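DATA SHEET
Item: assembly model
Revision: 1
Owner: S.N.
Input lines:
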Amino acid sequence: MAIAVAGSVVTAVAHPPMSYWRAVGWRLRRDPITLAAGGLLALIVLAAVLAPILAPHDPNAGSIRLRLAALGTADHWLGTDEQGRDMLSRLLHGGRMTLLAGLTPVLVAFVVGTVLGVAAGFVGGLPNHLIMRTMDIFYAFPAVLLAIAISGSLGPGLWNTLISLSVVFIPRVVRVAESVTVQVKSLEFISAARASGAGIGQIMRHHLLANVLGPILVFASTQVSLSIILAAGLSFLGLGVTPPAAEWGLMLNTLRGSIYVNAWVPALPGVAIFLTSMTFNLLSDGLRDAMEIRS
Amino acid sequence: MWVYAIRRLLLAVPTLIGASLIIFAMVHLAPGDPIAAVMPADATQAEIEATKKAYGFDKPLPVQYLYWLGRVAHGDLGRSIATRRPVIEDVRDSLRHSLALAVSSSLVAFGLGIGLGLLAAFRQGRVLDKLASAIAVVGVSVPHYWAGIILIIIFSVQLNWLPAMGAGSEGGLAEYLRHLTLPTVALSLIPLGVITRVVRSAALDILAQEFVLALSAKGLWHRTVFFHVVKNAAPQILTVLGLQFGFQLGGSVLVEAVFSWPGTGYLLNLAIFQRDIPVLQGVILVLAAFFVLLNLTVDILQSLVDPRIARH
Amino acid sequence: MKRLIAVSALAVLALVFATSAFAQGHLRIGMTASDIPYTGGQTDNGFEGFRFVGYQIYEPLINWDLTRGDRLPPLVPGLAESWEVRKDNPARWVFKLRKNVKFHDGSPFNADAVIFSFESIKKRDAPHFDSYGSAQVSFRLTALKGISKLDDHTVEIDTGAPTSFVPYQIVYMVIVSPAQWNKVKDWRKFAEQPSGTGPFKVTRFVPRERLELEPNRQYWNGKRMPKVDKLTLFPMPEPTTRLAALRSGQVDWIEVPPPDSIPQLKGAGFQVVTNSYPHNWTHTLRLDKEPWNNKLVRKAANYAIDRVGICKSLLNDMCIPATGVAYKGHPWFGKPKEVYEYNPNKARDLLKQAGYGPGKPVPKAVHLISTSGSGQMLPLAMNELIQKNLKEVGLEVDLQPVEWNTLLTRWRAGFQAPDNQGLNAWNISWNFLEPWSGFGRFFHSKSVVPVSVNTMPYLNPEVDKLLDEAEKTFDIAKQDAILARIHEIIVDDAPWIFVAHDLNPRGLSPKVRGFVQPQSWFVDLTAATVR
């Protein structure tokens, strides 16, 4: 075993990314919960992407005479909303909006945050100070408050929601990226690699990125569920997506008044948000375990 | 330690000023003429100019910012355009309610969270761990505004045990607490999940350290190990507790909206739809200041518990 | 730490099951307003402000008689015992004021108080000018040009030109206590300790949360002495919140329960009271810009709306379709040529006639709506449906929701205000209590902003002439006939999208007795009791 370990350490120096990520993938495949969550997420994403095909009705077409039909109604298995629109179709289409509004800001934050954070961590000195103190200012606001404040100023709409949530998540990613970069920079095997003559580019690619991207990715994945809840929450307050668009948070808002007529149909969008959020959390947990990242 | 504390305190000042800049910029980004609310429809141009002057809206933006900042330093947050009351009064009144909600929700989340987290760590891999972890994941994933609605349906409408809205400030403490119950439960779900997970993870880290294993092999399970774990996990846990308290204070908007809880979130929500600029600026600034102070306190406490941090 | 939590949890559980008892005869009302209406006299939040604050704490010289529900309320003496137009000068009205009336602060009601109140609205340079209060009400008082004191209990109002509308406008000007104002010299402080002559007086004011009132034991009208011990008003803009509050017993009376919940409310023993009243829910269109500057397009919009669907299916029969300003059966309805009904094909034809079609779409319109408010019914749900109806015939409308009081403020500033340049309509519910509110303030060219609220602006010399004639006609039957003629023209011109007449549903706990719902926007709370 020791030889194999030694062997893999030696191989690690020469080709660190491949066997590391392979190991991660191997561990992911062995975790039943992560697999289940991954499967569920794939289903949710697939359902959202294929919504136009899967949805039995036009999500915006409804007859008010059919409003608030209960679960299990013929032709409307998940009931209808307060305007008589089919819930199943709206949930499918709503998934697109919610996923878009939830994932995009985190993606943007991941890219922009990694670039800023790694740069700050690697370069150090004054640029680091400038960047990090600026991020500190944004950190002065709890996420929900910042999102609402920005959305409240910009006004409702999908674009404004994306902008405001991106602004919320970028500082968080920057912080993690910078902190991890600083840690890794000082690790021994970096100096060893340097001593062995590897160039800056090689170091960046093989060591820094492999050891830095992992934790950032894990962190970003933990933020997705919050982003989804926030995006839906903004629509819930009337600051996100506007009617008549189908979006889970907005649906929660407009269906709220109907909880006294039929408690189940209004609960459905909340269940959808909850399930999606939970799959992302379980996945990010699995990812973290597989990468053996400590928080 | 004092050096660290003073350094952190000094750092908080430019952070707050930066935050105030962002707040001012954000709020004035919004389109709309704020003083339309106080002017009669047949106001002459002269009268409009005079009112603009009274509110300070006639000056260029940077100057307005400096004036506002100057007044804030004196504790004057301006006057609400919608109600003409001093903003500081509205903020003070609503902050009381938000604090009550944040404190009670924190008590629940911290108490249960730490308890569940430790339980899960000490019973790792067993049923209790899986149960606690499941509760945690559910807590973190649930949209708390939706949870609030469900709670209202069950406990207010169906069972009629608890009130659905407001703060019940007309009754005594008992009435207030009754009104506080459902919002507290709704708001505590996410922090409960987060804290459980962090505590479990931190405790597991420490339990995995070699000499702890050695200790337990010697038969010194529980008490000594327990305190050791708690002491070493404390810095990490403190950070999370601080962050989560901040989340509950500054992020209670959604829960307050569902329950019409008259806190700062409710005030903020109303001010957004009324385009009441002084109130918006004032509320966000106060909440941000609270959050900064909170982080500051947590950092200093942390350095007390773990002196290594001060050296960073 | 854990023990503390356990004890607290137990304490909370114990308190959770403790019931709180309220004093007998305490009426608690959940309003649709998002904050407590301005208590400084000339109140805000539209007619809900008058309903619960303006007319409870204060009184005008002339009152509505709200004690019966079987007829439209007539005007009766309030703080004025009698009034008449002078025979020698029909532009002057003499009001004889009631004697031995005291304000809540104990000071006497007299002519000085009336003049003080008038000046607080109209006299810009007076130290007691209330710029906020004036903004709320001055557009309703356009006929009242000046006032003078004849003696301690007589005032004379100057209207410039003769007009029969005076009593209808006087009813909106409430009388505030000069003595109280002089103690504080500031309207905001006055609003915290208000003093009027009304049946209720304020005991406690918690901003954004509640207004507590008790009966005014010195009230001059013994027949209208409040029967309850205490009255508390709560702002509750969210319909679901109001409903939850009523069902859980937190309040005894809510305005506008969600229509979906009405069958359940009735089943659970609650009272749901309705009555017709002069109410009109419309989209008031901007007539100087595309797309609504074209009469054919406006008519098309009116044919595109499924009013029956809205009233029956969305609102559970809590409204009736509106095809004009007044409803059929009202003396002002007349015989309009256009009878608007749900006819999308006709709508599309009209648009084709106007020159629009697939190649030339109608320009998009932006409509300002509110999130709640008195008379606004269920604005978000109704507007979403209207948006859909209009889209089906090719009319694209963007909805912009704002808070109710904000909507009123922007409306009073008119479409030409810089803030409102991009708007094409407002969705505000109107009253047609009397000729001025129903027609004069909207359709006369002299009512253009800033004088009053002809915001569209609607400029029709024929209607101007008829309105002038109506104003000079003191005979009610003749006046009604002229107004009916005006109504026919208005319906044909379609300056509004007519949608519905509300039936004013209220949810009351079974403990509330004695309340009679009048055919009015306002209510008399003095006869109500809470067992």
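QC remark: The radius of gyration of chain C is 24 Å.
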